[in-house]
Amino acid sequence: MKALITAGGRATRLRPITFTINKHLIPLVNKPMLEYALEKIQECGITEVAININPGETELQKILGDGSRWGMDITYLEQQGGPKGLAHIISNAAEWLGDEPFLFYLGDNIILGSIKSLVEKFQREELDCLLALSRVPDPQRFGVPELRNGRITRVLEKPSDPPSDFAVTGIYIYKSSILRACSDIQPSARGEY
Question: What pLDDT is attached to residue 93?
Fold first, then answer.
């Protein structure tokens, strides 16, 4: 299994801080936010990691290096065409991902607890995909899953009338078959895939 981490985008809601620093490098308890993602992935035993970056990004590479600090091999993939959504990021990484399942981790999320059990469940049950969810008091602020018999039937982005009180946390595990699905997705009204 490989891991793909998002670390691109514009982070306009965090301005003026993000005028001078990538939001994934903002320090939390004296280390960049993205290091927490790498530690969670390391706990899962994943050693091949790609980080999606903005074109021309150099600070991430300087700070994180080649990944040897975590026993990993980090590849940096420039997001071509600007920020166009999560499916676009996955499609951009298709060649690097190959036919392997992968953990897709939104790098601006801080996750409490281990995600190792999710990876183990995905492998043990031979699932096609697995999303980590969290119960929240205000689901209309997040991506919210519609659930049927314990399965996610769709995810609604910031719905005014949420179908559940869960939010998608930004941890996804996919089989490589998701690559075909990503290539079939049509852009949203915001131009994202």
Answer: 94
